[in-house]
């Protein structure tokens, strides 16, 4: 039997699957307000035809649970778990790789276009032709042709082939063929075939390269019948061919592979029947050889997920999607205003954007992502009208500027670490000293550095060999294979207020400060001399090590470094330009250390240093700095940071609220200070998260054009009120942010922002006092579990295009310091469901499902004209790793 396969390299794995083994399952930082789950049980069977009678050879009751299915965003990870499935054998290292289809009895997870009643294998995304095509030279009756549940057409020797083969497929030698074409959202049919000769979707060409790893998952079921996976949801922004949007229905399809139910025709040989009835070449939990191709029993492998026997056992989960932030890209407006700065606000501006942009009477407001220090400079010099910052300049901007609080969130230390048992580690604890060690290139990372650099000779090779780390984090392998990734904190290469906050936290710890100044830790580890005495805080972390290990810089070890030597440890650190790039690397466990020499033909032509790449499940070790909101959206594990000798605090609503109580107004600077030193010295601060940060909209109160001033003021009013309502809906505040409300002790901050809006609108050169501002009565609860509050609507007094605006139960008068009458905040309104559904159907009929973004714009713009409030655009510009 000859089966078409595509070989890809994979690291050897040794997953332990006594229970569930798969991709890391994680807990969100803070739960969204209306998260919805899905649970369903199905009894599934495998049968054989014995003496003309159907006989059940395997029967199982499989229960599937998905933790979130509504208002999904692109790249959002959802937790999937199951029980009762057949244990998996022939396990490969990466359950998202092409090789994973060779696993026996995998629990296959696919994202498919269509509702549960309409999905077909032809609308399910897979990354490679080999998962949709099979052929045979040896026999006309391979297992998939003996399937008892085949239609008459599927019993044919050639099934699904294009009517006219393209020239690229002219070499086809196999008389027996089974094709499963992929139908794209725009209706284009990609037939695939061997080596993709009849065409593949464009997204499949770059999977595993510069694009995202595939979200298709061949999940591993443990010997107890249970398994888990984190499934990465794609929208049309990540995969246009799949095309999932608010208007294009998609589903998560789980296919618990049980094997082919065989019904052998008389013409089939005994060996054909035996191959169809095969029970597996691997024992449950057994690892696959490398490479795994052709070692498995095809009848029970993931390669036949589409077979009638397996497809009939599927469990289908309907998914719904949030309005995408890029819905505003095609909207024209009479006025555009920008705010430059903070990455901490990306998840919030993503949700605020559609609420603001789609009312044709209003304007676009773009969040231009830059480092906060750069944004401060632009605002100071007049290159920008406004900035999102967390560390406003103490000396001011040289003009009257209100630092209006719009969010309370912070940085997180995210990680992807597997414990010694091969399972995701979920209780990482870090101290300021450990973070200082990771940042200062003080772990040698590789033996040549440790052996040749006398300054680091006695330091642990990586953090897993550091006694301090071992004491705090039992259950992690001492001396992991991913030594380079375990020697550095994946950090930012650009300037950022996040780096200022992190290095302030480190600097305020006496033990870390003493170590940076040259005092060895209690086990004798010393700081890399290049960093000894470094002054902190800084807004950009420097890479100072200049050591080059001569033994490693040889043609037989690393030809790239021999020919173009550079300092080694900065290559290990390999910082990235954006927090979201770090989040993405952690989400997919893509190690960034650029120490691997890539040679195309074994010569120096085209050789270059490349990143280490995706780590093997069961052996992952990565730690990086990210935002709390990113960690929540992408379900990243986050470390608990030390606040006192034996106390560690992770980011959560409660720990952010505890930190909020410590904020003190800095009247000279015009902002609220986060007293990081207090976090470690005060017992009252023991439960406060030390990564807490306030994000301000810094906007001048003098010198702005009148229209821009009006627009910025309208934005501030919204962000101080309705924009603080927690949830995943349009215009709401996503998880990872603590609402600026009285219940959270933040009414002064919201009141200041509301008061600042008046001075911004008036351009009177005034800046409100940090105290004494009446907080607006926002329709929001005190946590991310809060539901929708009541209230009523009335005509907007602002004349800003809103047809209705929320009036709180008790109308609050203008805040002190205001010089104009302020409109009340606008509610979150979606429009009548019947109207929206009707518009959606009309849009699909007129332009097709593939035009997702345009359809959303039309739908919401029409709704906005009749029932929606004022809408602005807060988009963003960003890069990818």
Radius of gyration: 29 Å
Determine the fraction of residues in helical runs and give it as a percent range.
Answer: 10-25%
- Average per-residue pLDDT, rounded, comes to 83
Count of DSSP H/I helices = 19
Largest sheet: 7 strands, mixed
Uncertain residue ranges: 1-34, 778-881
User: Based on helices, strands and strand pairing, what is the structural class?
Assistant: alpha+beta
Distance between the termini: 41 Å
Shape: globular
Strand content bin: 15-25%
Overall number of strands: 31
Please supply descriptive tags for the structure shown above.
single chain, alpha+beta, 4-stranded antiparallel sheet, 19 helices
Summarize the topology.
Layout: E1 38-50, E2 53-66, E3 77-83, E4 107-113, E5 133-136, E6 158-159, E7 176-179, E8 182-183, E9 189-190, E10 217-219, E11 227-232, E12 250-256, H1 270-276, H2 308-311, E13 315-319, E14 336-341, H3 346-357, E15 364-369, H4 372-381, E16 387-389, E17 401-417, E18 429-430, H5 432-439, H6 447-452, H7 467-472, H8 497-507, H9 510-516, H10 559-563, H11 569-573, H12 579-587, E19 590-591, E20 596-598, E21 608-610, E22 613-614, E23 621-627, H13 628-633, E24 637-638, E25 640-644, E26 647-649, H14 653-660, E27 664-666, E28 671-673, H15 676-681, E29 692-700, H16 706-720, H17 747-762, E30 792-794, E31 805-807, H18 833-847, H19 852-866
Parallel strand pairs: 6-7, 14-15, 14-16, 18-25
Antiparallel strand pairs: 1-2, 2-3, 3-11, 4-10, 4-12, 5-7, 8-9, 12-13, 16-29, 17-23, 17-24, 17-29, 19-22, 20-21, 25-26, 27-28, 30-31
Helix pairs in contact: 5-8, 5-9, 16-17, 18-19
